[in-house]
UniProtKB/TrEMBL annotation:
Record domain CASTOR ACT: where: 70-126
Domain DUF2241: 3-69
Name this polypeptide is given: Aspartate kinase
Domain of life, source organism: Bacteria
InterPro entries named among the record's database cross-references: ACT-like_dom_sf, CASTOR_ACT_dom, DUF2241
Species whose genome carries this gene: Dokdonella fugitiva
Record lineage: Bacteria, Pseudomonadati, Pseudomonadota, Gammaproteobacteria, Lysobacterales
One Pfam family of this chain: ACT_3
Length: 145
C-alpha cells in the first residue's frame, strides 16, 4: 500500500495500536552494547547515544532510565513528507495533558507516552481519529456526468 500524505485521510485512518510492553529511554555508555534485536530506536547526540529499549533490557544492563514509556504505533502508512500529522496528534495529546516523544519510521509514526497515561493517550487519539473520520464522511463528494 502506498504511503498516505493527505492529512485528513491520515487522521481518519491512523488506527493507534498500544504495545503491551514498557519501554525505557536511556543513554548508552561507552562499552555497553545491548542486543541489536532489543533496540527499538537510537539517536546520536553530542552527549551520547540515546536509545529506547524494552524496560527489562535496560534494567538487565544496569542502565539509568530517564523515561519509562508506553509505545503507541499509528498503523496508517504515513508519508514521511506529509504535513500536519505530528502537529495534530501532538495537539490532541497536549490538550489531554499528555507528553509525547515521537519516532518516525519509514512506514509508521511511533509515539512514546508516559506509561501511566497510555489509556488516556489511546482515548485522545481515538477521539481525534473519529472526529477526522466524521469530517471525511460528511465532506461533499465530487460528481461527474
Amino acid at each position: 500500500m502506498p504511503a498516505i500524505a493527505d492529512l485528513d485521510t491520515l487522521l481518519a485512518q491512523m488506527q493507534p495500536a498500544l504495545d503491551p510492553g514498557r519501554y525505557a529511554f536511556v543513554v548508552l555508555p561507552p562499552g555497553i552494547s545491548p542486543d541489536p534485536a532489543s533496540v527499538i530506536a537510537t539517536m546520536r547526540e553530542p552527549e551520547g547515544l540515546s536509545a529506547v529499549l524494552a524496560e527489562h533490557e535496560a534494567i538487565a544492563l544496569g542502565l539509568p532510565i530517564t523515561f519509562t514509556a508506553a509505545w503507541i504505533t499509528l498503523t496508517v502508512h504515513s508519508d514521511l513528507a506529509a504535513v500536519g500529522l505530528t502537529a495534530a496528534f501532538a495537539d490532541a495529546l497536549a490538550r489531554a495533558g499528555i507528553s509525547c516523544n515521537v519516532v518516525a519510521g519509514v512506514h509508521h509514526d511511533h509515539l512514546f507516552v508516559p506509561v501511566e497515561r497510555a489509556q488516556d493517550a489511546m482515548e485522545a487519539l481515538h477521539a481525534l481519529q473519529h472526529s477526522a473520520a466524521a469530517r471525511e464522511d460528511s465532506a461533499p463528494r465530487a460528481t461527474f456526468s
